[in-house]
Design goal:
With about 425 residues, this protein is of the alpha+beta class. It is about 50% helix and about 5% strand. It has two domains: about 10-270, Bacterial muramidase (Helicase, Ruva Protein, domain 3); about 280-355, no CATH class. The protein contains 17 helices and six strands. Helix 7 (about 135-145) crosses helix 12 (about 260-270), helix 9 packs antiparallel against helix 10 (about 210-220) and helix 9 (about 175-195) crosses helix 11 (about 235-240).
Length: about 425
């Protein structure tokens, strides 16, 4: 859904691995910008057409889809030079700025819209939260950061976007992998549109049941400059794998149906390992920033146990087995770095401890900035960011142990009586 500033590697600063999304609200196209079909030089267009045709032939043969239908759907496909510029990595003097990023997304207009969206969909959000364990605030936060609840969903034709990035990706060190990734998403788009238009996979008896107009409309629908679609900005592959029919009308519409968007976001999070009732992150103790700096390697992996972080003074005991919360000492975590320049342009870093649910959000959009913004947006909406699993006090644990022991003795006595009667 969104290309954003990432910390996973320098090559992922703007162009990120695809999770749910890959568009970027940081660089959303202007709402007044018309759908663009721009041509480059003849040689580039010739290569583009040749590569696109090869993919069409491959899909037609492998999926049994009539080649003529695919050729008709892509007859006017064009490269979009402006998109090639948008996915270029930032310049060498670019400084990552957590403060500016946060300010862009956690701000009054978006928060007001989030509260309104929540009120309008409160009953359904509660239902989905009960079914999936994903908090309503987190779902609302994601949709708000992605598109301000449908206000900014992009205005490029999705087939042009994915074709451009698949076959005309700019010359960067990761051009091959990026091109293949978007090529895969282009195929996912075709398969998605084919089935949504009444076609079967593999196709039976040619185009039996196919609505050609609907197929072409699906290929031509608007997306972000990275090919992400609808309120939650799902890529075609994520739509096929994780989107669900929330309103029960028999179809998935992420552009017009808030219920479909809500249910799909929750399903994505659940399928990617969201732990119900667990926090997203913990703040780091001020005195342990130096230790946190040594452990912050930018790799999105849960490497350290909560107990290890307590021992190092990065967390307190209250944040460990959480006497106010339920996160076990052996739970794994990572150190998240959020750099920014101060008013004098000196490099500063904020550190937090990311838990399993932090990494689940990273799967939605592979950026630490994004995941922390989702967490803090959710907190602004009322999310407590603490475990809802009750933690027993030592006294309660002792009483429970005594109760269990009494039950065990009672059971043994009953068994002895039963054996005597036998």
């Amino acid at each position: 859904m969104n290309f954003r500033v990432s910390y996973l590697a320098s090559t992922l600063l703007v162009v990120l691995l695809l999770g749910a999304c890959t568009s970027a609200p940081i660089q959303q196209a202007s709402p007044t910008e018309a759908i663009v079909n721009q041509s480059e030089d003849a040689a580039t267009e010739a290569r583009f057409s040749e590569n696109l045709n090869q993919l069409i032939v491959h899909i037609a043969q492998s999926q049994g889809i009539p080649q003529a239908s695919l050729e008709s759907g892509f007859i006017d496909a064009k490269t979009i030079p402006s998109i090639r510029k948008l996915v270029l990595p930032p310049s060498g003097n670019f400084k990552k700025n957590w403060v500016a990023y946060r300010k862009r997304f956690i701000e009054p207009v978006r928060l007001k819209a989030g509260k309104a969206f929540w009120e309008q969909n409160q009953a359904f959000l509660s239902q989905v939260e009960q079914e999936t364990g994903v908090p309503s605030e987190v779902i609302v936060s994601i949709i708000g950061i992605e598109t301000i609840y449908g206000r900014q969903t992009g205005n490029f034709r999705v087939k042009d976007v994915l074709s451009t990035l698949a076959f005309s990706y700019p010359d960067t060190p990761n051009k091959a992998s990026r091109g293949q990734l978007f090529k895969d998403q282009l195929q996912e788009l075709i398969l998605m549109c084919w089935t949504e238009s009444g076609g079967s996979l593999p196709a039976m008896n040619g185009s039996q049941g196919l609505n050609s107009a609907r197929f072409n409309a699906c290929l031509n629908q608007n997306s972000s400059y990275a090919g992400a679609i609808g309120l939650p900005q799902f890529m075609p592959g994520s739509i096929r794998n994780f989107a669900v029919d929330g309103d029960g009308d028999g179809r998935i519409d992420l552009k017009q149906s808030p219920k479909d968007a809500i249910a799909s976001v929750a399903n994505f999070m659940k399928k990617h390992g969201w732990q119900p009732g667990m926090p997203i992150y913990f703040p780091i103790q001020e005195a342990a920033i130096g230790d946190a700096r040594l452990l912050a390697d930018g790799e999105p992996q849960l490497k350290y146990t909560i107990q290890e972080l307590i021992t190092k003074g990065i967390l307190t005991n209250e944040q460990g087995d959480l006497q106010s919360g339920g996160v076990e000492p052996q739970s794994k975590a990572l150190i998240v770095d959020l750099p920014y320049p101060d008013k004098d342009d000196n490099d500063q870093v904020r550190y937090v401890v990311g838990l399993n649910n932090f990494l689940t959000i990273v799967q939605y959009n592979r950026s630490y900035f994004y995941a922390q913004s989702v967490a803090e947006f959710a907190e602004a909406l009322g999310y407590k960011n603490q475990s809802v699993v009750p933690v027993r006090t030592p006294k309660a644990k002792s009483e429970a142990k005594g109760s269990e022991s009494a039950k065990s003795k009672s059971k043994k006595t009953a068994n002895k009586k039963k054996q005597k009667q036998t």
